[in-house]
Protein backbone atom coordinates (compact mmCIF):
# COMPACT_ATOMS: atom_id res chain seq x y z
CA UNK A 1 0.00 0.00 0.00
CA UNK A 2 1.36 3.38 -1.05
CA UNK A 3 0.49 6.66 0.61
CA UNK A 4 0.28 10.26 -0.56
CA UNK A 5 -0.16 13.32 1.66
CA UNK A 6 -0.40 17.06 0.97
CA UNK A 7 -1.38 19.83 3.37
CA UNK A 8 -1.89 23.55 2.76
CA UNK A 9 -3.07 26.33 5.05
CA UNK A 10 -5.64 28.40 3.14
CA UNK A 11 -6.30 31.94 4.24
CA UNK A 12 -10.08 31.52 4.26
CA UNK A 13 -12.66 30.17 6.72
CA UNK A 14 -13.62 26.51 6.57
CA UNK A 15 -17.12 27.37 5.27
CA UNK A 16 -15.61 29.17 2.25
CA UNK A 17 -13.30 26.26 1.41
CA UNK A 18 -16.11 23.71 1.75
CA UNK A 19 -18.37 25.90 -0.39
CA UNK A 20 -15.66 26.03 -3.06
CA UNK A 21 -15.47 22.21 -3.12
CA UNK A 22 -19.26 22.01 -3.51
CA UNK A 23 -19.16 23.93 -6.81
CA UNK A 24 -20.63 21.96 -9.74
CA UNK A 25 -17.54 22.85 -11.83
CA UNK A 26 -14.99 21.91 -9.15
CA UNK A 27 -13.50 19.04 -11.16
CA UNK A 28 -12.90 21.31 -14.14
CA UNK A 29 -11.24 23.89 -11.89
CA UNK A 30 -9.00 21.39 -10.08
CA UNK A 31 -7.89 19.36 -13.09
CA UNK A 32 -4.51 20.61 -14.32
CA UNK A 33 -4.86 21.71 -17.96
CA UNK A 34 -1.80 19.71 -19.06
CA UNK A 35 -3.16 16.39 -17.78
CA UNK A 36 -4.83 14.06 -20.33
CA UNK A 37 -8.08 13.80 -18.37
CA UNK A 38 -11.69 14.22 -19.50
CA UNK A 39 -14.43 14.75 -16.92
CA UNK A 40 -17.35 12.57 -18.02
CA UNK A 41 -19.78 13.18 -15.14
CA UNK A 42 -20.17 14.36 -11.56
CA UNK A 43 -23.34 13.52 -9.68
CA UNK A 44 -24.34 14.03 -6.05
CA UNK A 45 -21.96 16.80 -4.98
CA UNK A 46 -19.92 15.75 -1.95
CA UNK A 47 -22.59 13.56 -0.31
CA UNK A 48 -22.25 9.84 0.36
CA UNK A 49 -23.06 8.04 -2.88
CA UNK A 50 -21.83 10.87 -5.13
CA UNK A 51 -20.12 9.68 -8.30
CA UNK A 52 -17.36 11.15 -10.46
CA UNK A 53 -16.31 9.59 -13.76
CA UNK A 54 -13.20 10.44 -15.75
CA UNK A 55 -11.49 9.25 -18.90
CA UNK A 56 -7.71 9.19 -18.53
CA UNK A 57 -5.50 8.91 -21.57
CA UNK A 58 -2.39 6.77 -21.38
CA UNK A 59 -1.02 7.67 -24.79
CA UNK A 60 -3.76 6.52 -27.17
CA UNK A 61 -5.35 4.19 -24.62
CA UNK A 62 -8.47 5.49 -22.82
CA UNK A 63 -8.89 4.40 -19.20
CA UNK A 64 -12.17 4.82 -17.34
CA UNK A 65 -12.00 5.91 -13.71
CA UNK A 66 -15.15 5.96 -11.56
CA UNK A 67 -15.00 7.09 -7.94
CA UNK A 68 -17.82 7.22 -5.41
CA UNK A 69 -18.09 9.02 -2.07
CA UNK A 70 -18.22 6.76 0.96
CA UNK A 71 -18.13 9.37 3.74
CA UNK A 72 -19.14 12.99 4.13
CA UNK A 73 -19.04 15.11 7.30
CA UNK A 74 -19.82 18.69 6.27
CA UNK A 75 -17.64 20.83 6.45
CA UNK A 76 -14.77 18.66 7.69
CA UNK A 77 -14.34 15.60 5.48
CA UNK A 78 -15.34 13.69 2.40
CA UNK A 79 -13.89 10.44 1.09
CA UNK A 80 -13.90 8.99 -2.39
CA UNK A 81 -12.94 5.46 -3.40
CA UNK A 82 -12.21 4.01 -6.80
CA UNK A 83 -14.96 1.73 -8.08
CA UNK A 84 -13.53 1.29 -11.60
CA UNK A 85 -10.06 2.38 -12.60
CA UNK A 86 -6.38 1.75 -13.07
CA UNK A 87 -5.47 1.16 -9.43
CA UNK A 88 -5.87 -2.05 -7.47
CA UNK A 89 -7.30 0.12 -4.68
CA UNK A 90 -7.67 3.87 -4.07
CA UNK A 91 -9.07 5.81 -1.09
CA UNK A 92 -8.81 9.61 -1.12
CA UNK A 93 -9.61 11.43 2.12
CA UNK A 94 -10.20 15.20 1.88
CA UNK A 95 -9.89 16.95 5.26
CA UNK A 96 -10.85 20.53 6.11
CA UNK A 97 -9.62 21.70 9.53
CA UNK A 98 -10.27 25.09 11.12
CA UNK A 99 -7.07 26.80 12.29
CA UNK A 100 -7.94 30.17 13.87
CA UNK A 101 -10.22 31.27 11.04
CA UNK A 102 -8.08 29.74 8.32
CA UNK A 103 -8.47 26.25 6.83
CA UNK A 104 -6.00 23.41 6.72
CA UNK A 105 -6.72 21.53 3.50
CA UNK A 106 -5.37 17.97 3.60
CA UNK A 107 -5.42 15.38 0.85
CA UNK A 108 -4.51 11.88 2.01
CA UNK A 109 -4.51 8.97 -0.45
CA UNK A 110 -3.92 5.28 0.21
CA UNK A 111 -3.55 3.27 -2.97
CA UNK A 112 -2.22 0.09 -4.52
CA UNK A 113 -0.85 -0.28 -8.03
CA UNK A 114 -1.81 -3.51 -9.83
CA UNK A 115 1.00 -6.02 -10.09
CA UNK A 116 2.11 -6.05 -6.49
CA UNK A 117 5.17 -4.84 -4.66
CA UNK A 118 7.58 -5.21 -7.58
CA UNK A 119 5.46 -2.98 -9.83
CA UNK A 120 4.98 -0.51 -6.96
CA UNK A 121 8.77 -0.41 -6.53
CA UNK A 122 9.34 0.12 -10.27
CA UNK A 123 6.72 2.81 -10.96
CA UNK A 124 5.55 3.99 -7.53
CA UNK A 125 7.96 6.94 -7.73
CA UNK A 126 6.39 7.98 -11.06
CA UNK A 127 2.81 7.79 -9.70
CA UNK A 128 3.90 9.80 -6.65
CA UNK A 129 5.49 12.47 -8.86
CA UNK A 130 2.22 12.78 -10.85
CA UNK A 131 0.25 13.10 -7.60
CA UNK A 132 2.68 15.73 -6.25
CA UNK A 133 2.29 17.76 -9.45
CA UNK A 134 -1.50 17.46 -9.53
CA UNK A 135 -2.08 18.30 -5.87
CA UNK A 136 0.34 21.20 -5.92
CA UNK A 137 -1.86 22.63 -8.69
CA UNK A 138 -5.12 21.78 -6.84
CA UNK A 139 -3.98 23.41 -3.63
CA UNK A 140 -2.79 26.53 -5.46
CA UNK A 141 -6.15 26.83 -7.24
CA UNK A 142 -8.01 26.24 -3.96
CA UNK A 143 -5.97 28.96 -2.23
CA UNK A 144 -6.57 31.42 -5.07
CA UNK A 145 -10.33 30.87 -5.33
CA UNK A 146 -11.07 30.57 -1.61
CA UNK A 147 -9.18 33.72 -0.69
CA UNK A 148 -11.27 35.66 -3.21
CA UNK A 149 -14.66 34.32 -2.00
CA UNK A 150 -16.86 36.62 0.05
CA UNK A 151 -19.16 34.73 2.44
UniProtKB/TrEMBL annotation:
Residues 10-125 form the Coenzyme Q-binding protein COQ10 START domain. SUPFAM superfamilies: Bet v1-like. Pfam families: Polyketide_cyc. This is Cyclase/dehydrase.
